[in-house]
């Protein structure tokens, strides 16, 4: 089972390696860091946190920051 806080911390490192825009209220790097910080701080938990991680990981793949296989390995290690 995925440790959501460990996965979030690893996602935080990957966000800046993407080609996503810095600021966009839906998918910019600033917004993704905000989402990640809320997961790490325990403000977002349970199934909502897992949905958020899935959303963030999808954007990381789209932005070229990691492959699905790399993210799958992160999920397994967390």
Task: Describe the protein.
This protein has 78 residues and is mainly alpha-helical. Helices cover 65% and strands 0% of the residues. The termini are close together.
* Shape designation: globular
Q: Report strand %.
A: under 5%
Largest sheet entry = none
Topology, number of strands: 0
Output the structural class: mainly alpha
Q: What is the helical fraction, as a range of percent?
A: 55-70%
- CA-to-CA gap between the ends? 8 Å
Return the average pLDDT rounded to an integer: 94
Name the helix and strand elements from N-terminus to C-terminus, one letter apiece: HHHH
| Count, helices | 4
* pLDDT < 50 stretches: none
| Cα-based radius of gyration, to the nearest Å | 11 Å
Q: How many structural domains?
A: 1
Question: What features would you highlight for this structure?
Answer:
78 residues; mainly alpha; 0% strand
In short:
The chain is 65% helix and 0% strand. With 78 residues, the chain is mainly α.
Produce the secondary structure layout.
Layout: H1 4-15, H2 29-40, H3 46-62, H4 68-77
Helix pairs in contact: 1-2, 1-3, 2-3
């Amino acid at each position: 089972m995925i440790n959501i806080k460990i996965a979030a911390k690893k996602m935080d490192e990957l966000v800046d390696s993407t080609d996503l825009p810095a600021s966009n209220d839906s998918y910019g790097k600033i917004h993704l860091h905000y989402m990640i910080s809320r997961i790490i701080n325990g403000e977002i938990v349970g199934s909502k946190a897992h949905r958020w991680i899935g959303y963030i990981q999808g954007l990381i793949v789209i932005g070229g920051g990691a492959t699905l296989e790399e993210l799958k390995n992160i999920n397994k290690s967390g």
